Structure to design on (314 residues):
């Protein structure tokens, strides 16, 4: 396994807090990094003109080398008309980690490497993993079944196993990870880092509606629906939020759309992720809305306990 040098001695627990559309903004990222996990946000969350540059200036000003590094997520699909502009700002402010999604663009990797940054690319299968590394990504985020947001369909055991047959570089695993036991399991199966999103929705710093946070606390794996109806890319959503938006979740099972579209949903006026809320299957471990630092403390304590238990029992 290969932990990036940038992360060494700066993490309290081997975790990247996943970039979540709308939810992840500077307050949350700063809290995550100060608590000792990699905090991240999608560049598209900075919607107003000039906002992304303001965010990057703030992150550079308020975070130090004693904190965990931060990451910016770039959607590199051709439908993202802001990619070049956002990438230029990442280069200007030397964003330590870029997480690229929905396509592989060698020029993105080259731009980040020009100032010494590293690129993780998220993938849902081994074929996409090969393409990402062949085209210059430094690390991978294996998005397995059960992950929040745009998730894959393969078991994390199968996905990590296939990747580790040929790739020894940095690997993060996403998929229903919400406690320290799961972080230890991810490491045991071959990942360097756990990639956790949904648990951070129920934090005080998250830019999520209070009803969204409470729904995460009150829900479990049975409440998650996997569908591509809302964006054209398969993802996991809270079924109660779908019903709340006036759509029968049962009517969506087995139904698919053919075109990628992040701007609309089936029901006019209801949009993913604003009205129809994403979440992974691991939220049964989320019991309260807490500060991000307290969540990280819990994860770290559970992780250490899991390692101690395995060492004693082994």
């Amino acid at each position: 396994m290969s932990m990036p040098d940038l992360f060494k001695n700066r993490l309290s627990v081997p975790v990247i807090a996943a970039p979540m559309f709308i939810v992840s903004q500077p307050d949350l990222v700063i809290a995550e990094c100060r608590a000792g996990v990699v905090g991240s946000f999608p560049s598209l969350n900075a919607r107003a003109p000039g906002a992304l540059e303001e965010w990057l200036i703030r992150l550079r000003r308020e975070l130090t080398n004693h904190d965990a590094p931060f990451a910016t997520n770039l959607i590199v699909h051709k439908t993202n008309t802001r990619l070049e502009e956002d990438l230029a700002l990442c280069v200007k402010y030397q964003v330590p980690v870029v997480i690229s999604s929905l396509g592989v663009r060698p020029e993105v990797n080259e731009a980040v490497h020009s100032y010494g940054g590293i690129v993780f690319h998220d993938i849902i299968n081994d074929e996409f993993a090969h393409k990402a590394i062949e085209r210059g990504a430094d690390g991978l985020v294996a998005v397995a079944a059960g992950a929040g947001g745009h998730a894959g369909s393969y078991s994390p055991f199968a996905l990590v196993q296939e990747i580790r047959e040929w790739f020894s570089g940095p690997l993060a695993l996403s998929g229903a990870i919400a406690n320290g036991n799961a972080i230890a399991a991810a490491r045991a199966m071959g990942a360097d880092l756990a990639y956790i999103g949904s648990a951070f929705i129920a934090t005080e710093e998250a830019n999520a509606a209070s009803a969204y946070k409470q729904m995460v606390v009150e829900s479990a794996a049975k409440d998650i629906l996997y569908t591509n109806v809302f964006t054209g890319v398969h993802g996991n959503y809270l079924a109660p939020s779908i019903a709340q938006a006036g759509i029968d979740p049962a009517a969506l099972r087995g139904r698919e759309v053919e075109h990628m579209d992040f701007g609309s949903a089936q029901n006019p006026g209801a949009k993913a992720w604003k009205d129809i809320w994403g979440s992974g299957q691991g939220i049964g471990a989320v019991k309260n809305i807490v500060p991000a630092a307290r969540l990280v403390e819990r994860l770290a304590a559970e992780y250490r306990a899991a390692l101690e238990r395995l060492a004693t029992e082994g």
Observations:
- The radius of gyration is 18 Å.
